[in-house]
Write a structure and sequence with these properties.
About 55% of the residues lie in helices and about 0% in strands. With about 140 residues, it is mainly α. The chain has a single domain, classed as Transferase(Phosphotransferase) domain 1 (Transferase(Phosphotransferase), domain 1), CATH 1.10.510. Helix 1 runs antiparallel to helix 5. Its EC number is 2.7.11.23. Keywords: ATP-binding, Kinase, Nucleotide-binding, Phosphoprotein, Serine/threonine-protein kinase, Signal, Transferase. GO terms for molecular function: ATP binding; RNA polymerase II CTD heptapeptide repeat kinase activity. It catalyses: [DNA-directed RNA polymerase] + ATP = phospho-[DNA-directed RNA polymerase] + ADP + H(+).
């Protein structure tokens, strides 16, 4: 769902959501610049939100870079300028949550919306793009 959320955000904003600078010479499988961008916006992941996080080898082994720095959650609205109470923003924010099985089932309910619900999403996306075009 994360990848779909990132693609959805790129469709809405016409730019990559969390574009980091790739460090090719590092043995660390995490791209720290990209993680930094993600954590600044969405906050630091927690075991409460992502129960299997503690089982990830890189999470356990890289205390300094991954766990050592604490981030404030500036919020998705700081980089995706949509109405926060709107359906498109709601769908996007749910896609970018750390997914538990319960979260996936809730998201599935959103995907299973009626035609009128999808029309609202598409209308909101269209209005967003019109407002961005007017700024150019």
């Amino acid at each position: 769902m994360w990848a779909v959320g990132c693609i959805f955000a790129e469709l809405l904003t016409l730019k990559p959501l969390f574009q980091g600078v790739e460090a090719k010479a590092t043995p660390n499988p995490f791209q720290l610049d990209q993680l930094d961008k993600i954590f600044k916006v969405l906050g630091h992941p927690t075991v409460e939100k992502w129960p299997t996080l503690a089982n990830l080898p890189c999470w356990q082994n890289d205390q300094q870079h991954i766990q050592g720095h604490k981030y404030e959650n500036t919020g998705l609205h700081t980089i995706v300028h949509l109405p926060q109470k709107g359906p498109a923003f709601d769908l996007l924010s749910r896609m970018l949550e750390c997914m538990t099985l319960e979260s996936v089932l809730q998201l599935h309910k959103l995907w299973s919306m009626s035609t009128s619900g999808w029309t609202r999403y598409l209308d909101e996306m269209h209005l967003y793009h019109l407002s961005q075009a007017r700024k150019l």
